Amino acid sequence: MESRAWLGMVVLACIGLARPAMAAGGACGTIVVPTGIGVSSSADVTSFNPLLVNSLYNQQAAELMYLNLFWLNGNTEQIDWSRSLASSVTSPDNGTTYIVTLKDRHWSDGVPITTADVAYTWKLINELGTSYVGYGAGGMPMIVKQFKVLSPTKFEVVLKHKVNQTWYIYNGLNALLPLPVHAWGKYTQDEIWQAQSSPKFFQVVDGPMRPARLDVGLDLVMVPNPNFEGGKVHMSRLIYKFLESDGAGLQGVESGDLDMANVPDAAWRAAQHVPGLKLVNLPPSSTFNEIELNLRDPDVAFLRDWRVRQAMADAINQPEMVRLIFHGQGEAVYGPVPPSPPTFLTPAMKAGVYPVGYNPAKARALLAAAGYSPGPDGIMRKDGKPLSFVFLMLSGDAVIEQMTEFIQQDLMKIGVQMKVREIEFNQMLALLNNPSPSSWQAAGLAETLTSYPTGEDLFATNAFGNSGGYSDPAMDQFIADSTNKPGLQGLYDYETYASAQQPVLFFATAGVSMLVNPRIHGASHMLDAFYNFYPDKLSCTAK
Question: pTM of this prediction?
Answer without folding.
Answer: 0.79
